[in-house]
Write a structure and sequence with these properties.
The complex is a heteropentamer, with one copy of chain A (328 residues), two copies of chain B (275 residues) and two copies of chain C (264 residues). With 275 residues, chain B is mainly alpha-helical. Chain B contains twelve helices and no strands. Chain C has 264 residues and is α/β, with parallel strands linked by helices. Chain C has two domains: 177 residues, P-loop containing nucleotide triphosphate hydrolases (Rossmann fold); 73 residues, no CATH class. In chain C, α2 packs across α3, α2 runs parallel beside α4 and α3 crosses α4. The chains are: A alpha/beta (328), B mainly alpha (275), C alpha/beta (264). The structure holds adenosine-5'-triphosphate (2 copies) and magnesium ion (MG) (2 copies). The site of one adenosine-5'-triphosphate has 10 residues of chain E, from α1. Chains C, E: Pfam families: ABC_tran (PF00005).
């Protein structure tokens, strides 16, 4: 029996993994395909990806940008097995005492440097004709950004939910930009090791099966759906109302068909180009990277972007399609 | 007659009152600060009112968690204390073995002492990523962080303590015909144990620190895990009781270790009181 | 019967400072040598050489005609001024220890009948030094005099051929000291031991020894106080009271002492 | 003749070789591990080859950063060392003042010693949010974290050291007509300073720890900042040299403090060597 | 001239253990009292009461007819067996310190001419005790005897009325000790000081004092050794050699000593 370990961290779009594991949904699907899957919670997001990259996990939840800059740039051939959602307001830029994005000029901005927050900020600045040199970035750990924002020193911040909602609740705070303005660019994925997946596709099938069973369960507004969401809310440290509010700013792909459509759309390669450019400019592709095309990215149907001979991040619709077609 | 301040001693009662004073002042300062902030913003989470703290304590300590059915505070404490105990035990054992070897055997000392000295300067936090990768994210890596954090200092400390044993004793044991092993086992080891407890007491604080740091990064339960989990929401009503609880635990462990040492090694403490 | 100990032209140097020079001495079994001399003149260093802790820089040291072992061993017992006993063992265990380590080479611990027997022997030894009533106490619960009795019992249980005493009574008050003198003399007479005892008190040396060795620097150089080492300047068989000689020695030693301490 | 191992001492040369051995072994183990991993995955970032490490060192130490134009390692070191120096200075001052007061004046001791004892058990990491709010997010809060992390232990330590001064000295000073202030100033303080340096040396490790923790949470530069930043893309080629560099810095600071103490307080060290 | 010191029916108890009982003593200015007694019988405790560090549990202690101050002060100098000098000051500074603290109440430091003058006074004092050649050394660079000379100089610079010495020569070797005796006698004769000196060595007590005080427990209770305290059992004016008396005292003290130490 093959054994696999996948890691997850607390984030609205990933809470279903915890629920699926707690409720035995993952075990059910793993049993069906004759494998074992251990779902491990990691407190620190970056650490979970590092662990995955180093080989401690066979799968891990992460955003599209981190999938490119950490495992792919680290030479670990990775497959984006499930495209769970994209952020549709879940990440945002907030200002204290100001209400317009262009007022950010000259300020210190607290955010998790080199994360999707950083990317969001760069995209936001573009929209008002500013560049990163017009502001000063202060690296702030996600666990402390709420406390940091409560201090007078901090006047601007970029963060994600549930931290964003905490921050927005503070006095004199305005949300001046959020990810709903760049829909589909910040994507939350379940990424698995390509070699492991190729060796035993049962891993992909079991994970996809468990995921979409959970999706179906939680998307309903009946008692069972509410109970599921309440459990996820509790596990992420909030209540049902708070969790639903976070879901509202998340474009969940509850139906596998929607996810397939998104993954096969032309927007995805374009988004990934932007992400690669940002990553390269910030040195995230490693010191050996000569251009933003240094790493190849594969898409459904054999399309690629970047260096074709070095495809390390692969988007696939294969397993989501099986789910959509009810073949799991 | 007026005495110099260095010659004036408070009575027992006065000393007790004086000792409580700073704690009371802190409490008052907190209550005042909390009130000021809450008046300005009733939703303020930073300095919750005493009543909210009490409610939070009740919730975490007495009400079963809805999801897991556990009493959260006790489950967290149990998880953390297990890790801590494992870390302390391994560190003590390592320190004892290394301390005895480097303290007693000149060749081993020449080989290991410089390395241990450098090792004790390595900031363990900085190599956390490596630790997690080598030892995984399970209980092991947390224990290893604690061990890595405190063992080098304890090793150096114990080596020092072993070397401080009067050389007269070692000579004496040799003139009684003991070989190195017997000297280790019957003369040096028993005298090192109470010193090990001393060293352990000194390193309790750092051990808690590393425990919390490790739990902050990867854990599913534990005191540090909880603090970092709820820190995202600035839930000071949970954090503050946890901090007080951790402090209390550290304090009690320190007391307990001292008690154990006094009970198990009376000769050590008699000697100390004389000196 | 040949000589037990032969010291031939022994020098001891630490780096450039000479502690002992041209030491010559022959001691027969059963002698009681007391050693006096001013502080820092190398008495303890000489004892360490007899123990085997230090080797001579030049010259030879023979025990029973064979080179002195390079380590302390059970044939040469020692009592220091302090720290001679094991603080973590009871009085009885302190003495039993010496029997256990040779009778149980691996563990250094005896069990059952062997243990009972060793403890009885130790208790008998302790009774001899007047500690029969304090077997279960820890050393920290004993007075200084009792601790030194314990240290002596501990050494004697091994039946050493030589007993080395380094100012064993220096920290005791004079009354207790007289009792210890009686004890040591008694044990020496009963056992036929060879004893070397360092003392600061010349009178004590005269009172106890059969032979008095005075360590002193025969040449003093104010420019380089460590240029010349100490040697044995008097080597006397004693047994009578010689007040004039005592004064003479006291005078010589005091002069060296003043010299050394003022030129530091 | 065969000697007991406790009696066998290596010569100077042998000791030096032995002392280097563990370092060499570590280096070899690293090189081997690195090679194994790189053969499996040439892009592996966890244990970079020696050559990559060298390249990274060159890059961070000698080439101006593309974005900021600074020499990264030196800029980071300068930022961190400033914070560290400020933290150590404040902690030392606090420890000195409190240690002297609690060590010498019984009434102050009764009032403060229990509080300091409890304070030294509080895990400072856990109360970071409060620190932020009170001291802001700037340099101040980082310095405060260092101070909070090490000062309570140093205070206890110094109190202990002051109380260990032979009471004979204080009595003597009084019989010479000195009042409490003069005794403090001329007898106790000068003798406390070398002990303060000792205490500082012991607390260098923890101070670096808190520095790194503070920089990991919010900073724009610094050694800890860099380590936690590049951890994002698992750039061990940067992290490892930084860890070695921090260790070296700690080591050098320790040596320097010892040197200062020997130079400024010769009487203290003469006494120690005798004892 | 009245009595300098009057001790009337003084008791000293620590909790339930009685250290001193029914102490009575009157000392005139200029006497040299040596105090002997077995270890632990309260000699140091008595000195601490004279210093003002301890008050009596019962009874009165008068200095010049007034109650003893509750703190040490510059009229009563002290020399301990060890730790009497400041290790962080040079020899000269150690002695100058006593002048500085009274001449500069705020800072405890003199500058300019005042400083120079104080240093000259201190140097003169040091010359008297034979340390004129070691002014700039630290105490750790001095031998034990030189350290005690320094401690004496330090005390004498304040011209105290009473000098208290607690086994000042206990750690010195016998030759050096004789020199120190000569020094103390010289200083005492020149200055007209009143001296209390504790010693373990009865002969030393006889040799130096004008008056010998023997502290001893008159009643011994094996069940409760601390039930009865010590008091002054002999109070002798001396000036002659009295070997029989010396032996008698030695015998009495030794007996107490044995008793106390064996019943611990
Ligand atoms: N290991 C050593 N290295 C260098 N010098 C040493 C060493 N051991 C002893 N000495 C020196 O040798 C001299 C003699 O020392 P030793 O202890 O033998 O004197 P002692 O006669 O026993 O004095 P005391 O009466 O004070 O015990 C001293 O000057 C001491 O400093
Ligand atoms: N602060 C104290 N509390 C309780 N007991 C004390 C205290 N100080 C002294 N003692 C006791 O008082 C007794 C006398 O002590 P003291 O030091 O005066 O004896 P001593 O005659 O000076 O002895 P030594 O010759 O050993 O110096 C001892 O039994 C001691 O334990
Ligand atoms: Mg000696
Ligand atoms: Mg005394």
């Amino acid at each position: 029996k093959d054994k696999y370990r996948v890691a997850w961290t607390i984030y609205v779009g990933w809470m279903p993994w915890d629920y699926a594991a707690q409720q035995g949904i993952v075990k059910k699907w793993a049993d069906k395909y004759g494998i074992e899957i251990e779902v491990v919670q990691v407190n620190d997001y970056v650490e979970s990806i590092n662990q995955y990259t180093a080989g401690a996990f066979d799968g891990c939840v992460m955003t599209n940008m981190d999938a490119l800059t950490i495992p792919a740039a680290g030479g670990v051939d990775s497959t984006a097995l499930i495209v769970g959602d994209f952020s549709n307001g879940n990440d945002g830029v907030v200002l204290k005492g100001k209400t317009a994005l262009k007022d950010i000029k000259g300020q210190k901005v607290n955010l998790v440097e080199l994360s999707v927050s950083h990317y969001l900020l760069a995209r936001a600045l573009e929209t008002v004709g500013l560049a990163e040199k017009d502001i000063k970035v202060v690296n702030t750990s996600d666990a402390d950004i709420v406390a940091a924002y409560a201090t007078p020193d901090v006047t601007a911040a970029v963060t994600w939910n549930p931290l964003l909602s905490e921050v927005r609740a503070m006095p004199k705070t305005a949300l001046v930009f959020d990810s709903s303005k760049i829909p589909g660019e910040i994507i939350d994925l379940m990424v698995v090791n390509t070699a492991k997946l190729d060796k035993n596709p049962a891993l992909g099938k079991a994970l996809a099966g468990a995921w979409y069973e959970t999706m179906a369960l939680m998307s309903k507004n009946d008692a069972a759906g509410k109970a599921a969401r309440s459990a996820m809310a509790k596990a992420s440290g909030t209540d049902l109302a708070g969790f639903d509010a976070q879901l509202a700013s998340t474009k969940m792909f509850y139906k596998p068909a929607d996810a397939v459509a998104f993954t096969t759309s032309a927007q995805l390669p374009a988004t990934m180009q932007k992400v690669a450019k940002f990553s390269f400019e910030h040195g995230l592709l490693g010191e050996g990277a000569s251009s933003e095309n240094f790493i190849g990215i594969g898409y459904p149907g054999g399309k690629t972007s970047g260096d074709k001979s070095k495809v390390k991040l692969r988007f696939t619709d294969q397993y989501m399609k099986l789910a959509a077609d009810g073949k799991l | 007659m007026k005495k110099r301040v260095i010659n004036r001693f408070p009575g027992q009662g006065a000393a007790a009152v004086l000792g409580l004073l700073p704690f009371l002042l802190l409490l008052l300062a907190y209550a005042w600060g909390s009130q000021v902030r809450l008046e300005a913003n009733p939703e303020d989470k930073l300095l919750p009112a005493m009543s909210s703290l009490a409610a939070a304590v009740e919730r975490v300590a007495l009400e079963p968690n809805r999801r897991t059915g556990e009493l959260q505070l006790w489950a967290d404490s149990a998880a953390s204390l297990q890790r801590l105990a494992a870390g302390l035990a391994v560190a003590s054992l390592l320190a004892l073995v290394t301390g005895l070897a480097t303290g007693m055997v000149p060749y081993v000392r020449a080989a290991l002492a410089p390395f241990v000295r450098v090792l004790s300067m390595v900031p363990p936090m900085a190599i956390l990523p490596i630790l997690f990768i080598v030892f995984g994210l399970g209980e092991l890596s947390k224990v290893v962080l604690i061990v890595l954090g405190i063992a080098p200092c304890m090793m150096r400390d114990l080596q020092q303590r072993v070397m401080e044993l009067p050389s007269e004793q070692l000579v004496k044991a040799q003139t009684l015909g003991a070989h190195s092993g017997q000297i280790l086992w019957r003369v040096v080891l028993p005298q090192t144990l109470p010193r090990l407890i001393d060293s352990l007491r000194l390193n309790l604080g750092p051990a808690f620190l590393f425990l919390i740091a490790a739990e902050a990064i990867a854990a599913e339960s534990g005191l540090g895990y909880r603090i970092f989990l709820v820190r995202r929401y600035l839930a000071m009503d949970t954090i503050l009781p946890y901090v007080v609880w951790i402090t209390l635990l550290a304090f009690l462990m320190d007391l307990a270790l001292r008690g154990v040492s006094r009970w198990a090694f009376p000769w050590f403490h008699q000697g100390q009181e004389r000196a | 019967m040949g000589a037990l100990l032969e010291v031939k032209q022994v020098w001891k140097e630490y780096g450039s400072s000479i502690v002992l020079e041209k030491l010559n001495l022959t001691v027969k079994e059963g002698e009681f040598c007391t050693i006096v001399g001013t502080s820092g003149c190398g008495k303890t260093t000489f004892l360490r050489m007899l123990l085997g802790q230090e080797g001579p820089s030049r010259g030879t040291l023979l025990l029973d005609g064979k080179p002195m072992p390079a380590e302390p061993g059970p044939d040469r017992g020692i009592v220091f001024q302090r720290y001679s006993v094991f603080p973590h063992m009871s009085v009885l265990d302190n003495v039993t220890f010496g029997l256990e380590v040779t009778r149980s080479r691996l563990l250094g611990r005896l069990f059952g009948g062997a243990r009972r027997k060793a403890r009885e022997e130790a208790a008998a030894m302790l009774a001899q030094v007047g500690l029969g009533h304090a077997l279960e106490r820890y050393p920290s619960e004993l007075s200084g005099g009792m601790q030194q009795r314990l240290a002596i019992a501990q050494a004697l249980i091994k039946k050493p051929r030589i007993l080395l005493l380094d100012e064993p009574f220096g920290a005791l008050d004079p009354g207790i000291r007289a009792d210890m003198h009686a004890l040591v003399l008694k044990l020496w007479k009963e056992s036929g031991l060879t004893i070397f005892m360092i003392t600061h008190d010349l009178k004590e040396g005269f009172k106890l020894g059969t032979r008095l060795l005075v360590f002193d620097k025969p040449r003093l150089d104010a420019q380089a106080p460590n240029r010349y080492g100490a040697t044995i300047t008097y080597d006397l068989a004693i047994g009578r009271d010689e007040p004039a000689l005592l004064d003479e020695i006291q005078g010589a030693v005091t002069e060296t002492s003043r010299f050394i301490h003022d030129s530091r």
